[in-house]
Amino acid sequence: MVVYVISLITIIITTVMLYQRWSMDSRRPRRMPRFLLGNLHQLKPDWTQSFTEWSQIYGPIISVWMGTQLTVVVTTSDLARQVLRDKDHHLSNRHRIARMTQTGTDLVWSDYSPHYVKLRKLCTLELFSFKSIENFRSLREMEARSMVESILKDLKDDEHDRKPVVVRKYLAAVVLNLISILMIGRKFGTEEDKELKAIVEKEHLLSGSWTLLDHVWWLKWVPSWFFSDKKFLEHEVRRRKWFRGAIMEEEDVAIEDHQGFVRKLLVLKEKKELTEETVVGLVWNMLTAGADTTAVVIEWAMAEMIKCPLVQEKVQKELDSVIGSQRLMTESDISKLPYLQCVVKEALRLHPSTPLMLPHKASETVLLGGYKVPKGATVYVNVQAIGRDPANWRNPEEFRPERFLEEETDVKGRDFRVLPFGSGRRMCPAAHLSLNLMALVMGILLHCFSWSSSIPGERIDMSGNPGLLFSMRTPLQALASPRAATRVIPLTLD
Predict the structure, then answer these.
(1) Model pLDDT for residues 279-312, shown as the tens digit of each residue
(2) Binding-site residues, please?
(3) What pLDDT digit, counting tens, does each position of 440-489 carry?
(4) Which segments are annotated as binding site for heme?
(5) Rounded distance between C-alpha atoms, residue 335 and residue 180, angstroms
(6) What does the alpha-carbon distance between residue 245 and residue 143 come to, in Å, rounded to a whole number?
(7) CA 99 to CA 227: how far, in whole Å?
(8) 438: which of 118, 140, 287, 346 is 20 to 30 A away, CA to CA?
(9) CA-CA distance, 105 to 91, in Å (whole number)?
(10) Which positions are annotated as binding heme (predicted)?
């Protein structure tokens, strides 16, 4: 009883101090916070939209109180440069929510430290080096061809009904197959695959929701039964069960019987250089972040080209001119397809898969845009708003790949007007592989099929699901009409 009384008094004193701090905090343009909630009650489910709207009122750098956590949001390329390059050494840690990010021993959610550097170097050398990417080129081309065969088979089965194709189904399969082969040396079985997709979908939904427990630090003193998160706890159990069965397999399987990147990780675990938690977290990073971000951008791009048939026609004209109809596109063709590359860049500009990037955390007090950002504050870079900033782009809401023909623009962290992979110390290590995969899959889909709306005249739903990953709210459905290139694929589909 005494403990609860002391805790209650401490909470009251802390909240009064926080409220005074909120009231006096005039160092940055801000929304006026509410007691305990901060600005949480003013946020829309899509935080990116709220932050973008507020920046139009208060300016390109704003303070937002997420419960008791000070959050700073920047929405211009100049401020992004400060966060990701100039002050990067003080802003490379991660703000973590315990229920979604574990303890931060993986690659994505760890603070910038020797541990992070070690994991990043391991992933770069083993998975994302130029040599590794080249070694697996034929595998990527084979899986892309298998995707086309699957679409043709489904079209043949439905040729009388002319049913639309659910584009996400094929994108998710081809990317996940590639990642799983890299990670474990094989594709998942049907049930493993189905369960993983369900788990990942649930995780994205959970990442788009929040509770006070996520944002009010002293609530950890409250007994767990009071703020139990049953949905997440059940999700965590389900995820670990799937992981043990599909990735780690039986406990008595010898390390040499494992394949892919997992074998390397298990060797390091055996040498006590990595913990089991780090192995689990790292593999999960690759399976989810690697697969989903790529598939999400391709789906947005396909939706834009169905809305803008002239763009689709230009890509197909380029493909027909460079490749013809006697063979399928390969990765070696990408360098000869400048307009296709521009389509990929334009999709990344308009529809970055993580529109706020992942949250950075200040390890020291820094100045951004002339304002003081204290140690411990969370910093978001609104890359979606930057990619649509009229100061950077003419007609920014228009899907117009030609803009990248008119001006050579880097999308791998050197041009701060478009930052789909971030920049600096926390830049995505798989940027080169992702760009190749997007161009290959998108190119083959357009080389082999013409795509149109499933219901002529009906508007495509271009709204997205809130959360760290910004996917299309309504999975894209479209009519796929085979083109001449599909004739090179043997029709062993009976």
Answers:
(1) 888 888 888 777 788 999 999 999 999 999 999 9
(2) 428
(3) 999 999 999 999 998 776 788 999 988 788 999 999 999 999 999 888 88
(4) 428
(5) 27
(6) 24
(7) 12
(8) 118
(9) 18
(10) 428
